[in-house]
UniProtKB/TrEMBL annotation:
Residues 431-452 are annotated as: Disordered. InterPro entries: UCP010361. The chain crosses the membrane at residues 115-134, 154-174, 186-214, 226-250, 301-322, 328-344, 356-382, 402-423. It comes from the Bacteria. This is DUF2029 domain-containing protein. Keywords: Membrane, Transmembrane, Transmembrane helix. The lineage of its organism: Bacteria, Bacillati, Actinomycetota, Actinomycetes, Mycobacteriales. It comes from Rhodococcus oxybenzonivorans.
Length: 452
């Protein structure tokens, strides 16, 4: 039975409504770590006592102090990084658009409680927008975004919601077939570039988008659309330059410091990575979090090399699928690239799960894999803070350490499987509960648009 636009709208409304409730629950959970009395800097005294044991820690509240947000300093333009690796003068460790959002959340804030609330009000519309787009594209499957634990756990853990919204928006724009193909691709590239200026990872998706445009929008004699591909690449590059150049010109040291901070970051016990739990024990156990120079150098070399290799493999396998089927699966390749990054990067923060969930909605992934990933993530999202709390209190941490390792290795194994599953997975075809343009990659393959 055909279900019309009205029922699709109703489904999307449910998805958006549940997203709002999940984010409200997420805010209330994080807000348990805030409240009077406050210290002289406006930090809730209760924060350090319960942030781990009560699993209400958030980077938002933590970074109220230490990045001059409490002093309302505009980021990047007067700061830098000192010899000890500490950021100074308002510089934060994220790309410039995330820094601007942090600064906006600090306006009018006098305590970390204010900052958490104001930041949540800024971030929440991006979560709702993501829910709306996923509801239009994936129908009921969008409940994976709106009604599963990660949104409650991580919506206001860090500044992830805007960057997820940009990556989903790029896919959504590409699904709107009534607009010219190349125009959609340029807009999508701009959105991904904006995402790069928020948290970097969407920038990687420009590569499969370029391959998609190169192969999809061909002329009648089947020549590749080189001009379209170059235009998409130029749109992404120009966007990144336009956003970053003013900051680099005003204060290169302040702008560069955010990248230097991430480059220097060690794969320590706070990173939840396979490197810390798998490789570090082979370099000796000086202490749980004591720097080991040889280990840091090894990870600093291997991690970026292997991430790049994973990207190259995903693109190659996507190209082979194009040769078989006639369409380059840019969304599937993007999902696989993300799996490679999450697995091999030296930092795997719990909230990165929010990056992955939209691909569970958009691509046909076996439900068992999705459920297993959510279970592993839940073990990590709760276990890691309980583990830190037990260590800080001098209590036996072994139960919580087991949860952490279950989360680390469970996610790692599933990411390897998902890397290849994504590359074979089709988009969810249009159905009575999905947006009619949701399978744009497949429909466009049947009727390529002439190059302009």
């Amino acid at each position: 039975m055909h279900i019309g636009a009205r029922q699709r709208t109703s489904i999307t409304a449910v998805v958006v409504g549940l997203c709002g409730l999940s984010m409200l629950a997420g805010y209330l959970n994080k807000a348990r770590c805030t409240g009077a009395p406050f210290d002289a800097a406006g930090r809730s005294l209760i924060f350090d006592r319960i942030k781990d044991t009560q699993v209400c820690y958030s980077d938002i509240q933590f970074l109220w102090v230490g990045r001059d947000i409490n002093l309302h300093v505009f980021p990047y333009v007067s700061g830098g990084i000192n010899a000890d690796g500490m950021l100074t003068g308002g510089t934060v460790e994220y790309p410039v658009l995330s820094g601007i959002l942090m600064w906006l959340g600090g306006i009018g804030s006098h305590t970390d409680a204010d900052f958490l609330l104001h930041s949540a009000l800024i971030l929440a519309p991006f979560g709702l927008l993501t829910a709306w787009m996923l509801g239009r594209l994936g129908g009921w499957w969008a409940l994976l975004w709106s009604a599963t634990p990660p949104l409650t756990l991580y919506a206001f853990h860090n500044w992830e919601l805007p960057v997820v919204a940009t990556s989903v928006a790029a896919i959504f724009v590409m699904s709107i077939e009534r607009f010219p193909f190349r125009s959609r691709a340029v807009v999508a590239a701009v959105l991904l570039a904006v995402g790069f200026c928020l948290k970097l990872y969407p920038g990687a998706f420009v590569l499969p988008l370029i391959a998609y445009v190169l192969t999809q929008n061909r002329t009648a004699d089947r020549r590749y659309d080189v001009r379209g591909a170059v235009t998409v690449a130029a749109a992404a590059i120009c966007t990144v330059v336009a956003v970053n150049l003013p900051f680099a010109l005003i204060s290169y040291s302040g702008w560069r410091a955010s990248f230097t901070f991430q480059e220097n970051r060690q794969a320590d016990m706070t990173t939840n990575s396979i490197w810390y739990w798998g490789l570090r024990p082979h370099f000796g156990t000086i202490g749980l979090d004591t720097p080991v120079p040889a280990y840091d150098q090894t990870v600093g070399l291997l991690s970026p090399l292997l991430v790049c290799a994973a990207f190259a493999l995903a693109l190659r396998l996507g190209w082979l699928r194009f040769l078989r089927n006639g369409t380059f699966p840019w969304i599937a390749v993007s999902a696989a690239m993300l799996c490679g990054f999450l697995l091999l990067h030296k930092v795997h923060s719990p909230q990165y799960t929010l990056w992955l969930i939209p691909f569970f909605v958009l691509l046909r992934v076996p439900w068992g894999l999705v459920a297993a990933y959510l279970v592993a993530d839940l073990a990590m999202g709760i276990g890691v803070f309980k583990y830190f709390g037990a260590l800080a209190a001098g209590e036996d941490p072994h139960t919580f350490e087991w949860l952490v390792q279950f989360g680390v290795w469970g996610r790692a194994g599933l990411l390897v499987v998902l890397f290849f599953v994504f590359l074979r997975a089709p988009l969810r075809r249009p159905s009575p509960t999905t947006h009619p343009d949701a399978d744009a990659e497949l429909t466009l393959a049947k009727s390529p648009e002439p190059a302009r």
